[in-house]
Amino acid sequence: MSASADESVHPTVVKAAAWAWRLLVLFAAVLAVLLVVRRLEVIVVPVALALMMSALLLPGVDWLDRRGTPRGLAVFLLLLGGLAVLAGLLSFVVDQFIDGVPGLVEQVTAVVNSTQHWLVEGPLHLSSEQIANVGDTVVNGLRSNQAKLTSGALSTAETLTKIVTGAFVVLFTLIFFLYGGRDIWRFTVRFFPGDVRERVHAAGIAGFESLIGYIRATFLVALVDAVGIGIGLAIMAVPLALPLASLVFLGAFIPLVGAVLTGLLAVLVALIAKGWIYGLITLGLIIAVNQLEAHVLQPLVMGRAVSIHPLAVVLGISTGGILAGIVGALLAVPTIAFIDRAVRALLSSGVEPAAEGVSTDPPGAAAPPH
């Protein structure tokens, strides 16, 4: 009875059912992994950030190591130099922000006063009482939501604690990745069956090479975006030009959308501080820089490092943003690039030879001792 019942089912339905339950199992496995990652976000995210930073700093550490510098000293010098540059830039940006905010506040106040005057004396002929009522409504709204603001402050304090904890994890993980990445990767590969270890080893190399190329290309693209927009804002004497350019630099690490969103903030500041003409000029500057990035920098620089379809980039950023906010959007594309290259190498018929000048060491590997 069972055999005859099976024979009565169309082969297409049988194949569809076979595909369906297998896809459900894969979906459940992916969902389980995402739940574990979400649960261990305080650990997973710092480790991922450390891996990205190691992709940026590893070539410099290897260069010093090849010239006779002890590996530990090379790691120390690169980290110390990187932290010094980062601290100097942040200090300079914060000083510029502190110096520029008072002037921006005065300009915003003047714009608000002129807007109120136009609303009263202009074609709308609103009464001063109506304008005052708007201000009272805003104040009352803030007072009525005081509890929510307090809970938001507590949430901010909790977030700050996570950031500090994550920073320590990033630092220590980065040190171990730069110093002993080869040993860490070899230990990890041992967990796989012996007949696939070589292929897994090659997949890790390919994925990490893709990550190195992505980080280098993204850094260059972000630097060009920030310099171009920063020079334009400085020429127009827009307040907070340097902090805004720094935000553009950081935002550019989220492909396609990061530089646009931070650039719109610069447009808003220019519009408030200098008027609609400067706002339109700033908007044109943002569009020009993004066109340069999309049609010149991305194909020439990023295209050589990774080859990911723009749709995959957009969907990856959206998914990462939904799952983990800004950090998820930041890590989405490099994760896709790593997985894409690693899976290609894993599924290839043979282990591809390394390109000339490319190390065959595993991800984050240390150079061989002298």
Summarize the structure.
The protein has eleven helices and no strands.
- Overall pLDDT, averaged? 76
List the secondary-structure elements in sequence, H or E. HHHHHHHHHHH
Strand content: under 5%
**What overall form do the CA principal axes indicate?**
globular
Fraction of residues in helices? over 70%
Summarize the main sheet: none
Overall radius of gyration: 27 Å
Q: Enumerate the spans where pLDDT stays under 50 for 5 or more consecutive residues.
A: 351-360, 362-370
Number of helices: 11
Counting DSSP E segments of at least 2 residues, the number of strands comes to 0
Task: Please tell me the total number of domains.
Answer: 2
Q: Structural class of the secondary elements?
A: mainly alpha
Quaternary class: single chain
Distance between the termini: 74 Å
Pfam families: AI-2E_transport
Subcellular location: Cell membrane
Family: Belongs to the autoinducer-2 exporter (AI-2E) (TC 2.A.86) family.
Keywords: Cell membrane, Membrane, Transmembrane, Transmembrane helix, Transport
Helix/strand layout:
Layout: H1 2-8, H2 11-39, H3 41-66, H4 71-121, H5 128-144, H6 146-189, H7 197-235, H8 241-251, H9 258-274, H10 276-305, H11 310-347
Helix pairs in contact: 3-4, 3-6, 3-7, 4-9, 7-8, 7-9, 7-10, 7-11, 8-9, 9-10
Structure description:
The protein is globular, with a radius of gyration of 27 Å. The model is unreliable at 351-360 and 362-370 (pLDDT under 50). The longest helix is centred in the first third of the chain and has 51 residues, at 71-121. The chain has eleven helices and no strands. The chain has two domains: 41-191, no CATH class; 193-356. It starts with a helix and ends in a 23-residue tail after the last helix. With 370 residues, the protein is mainly alpha-helical.
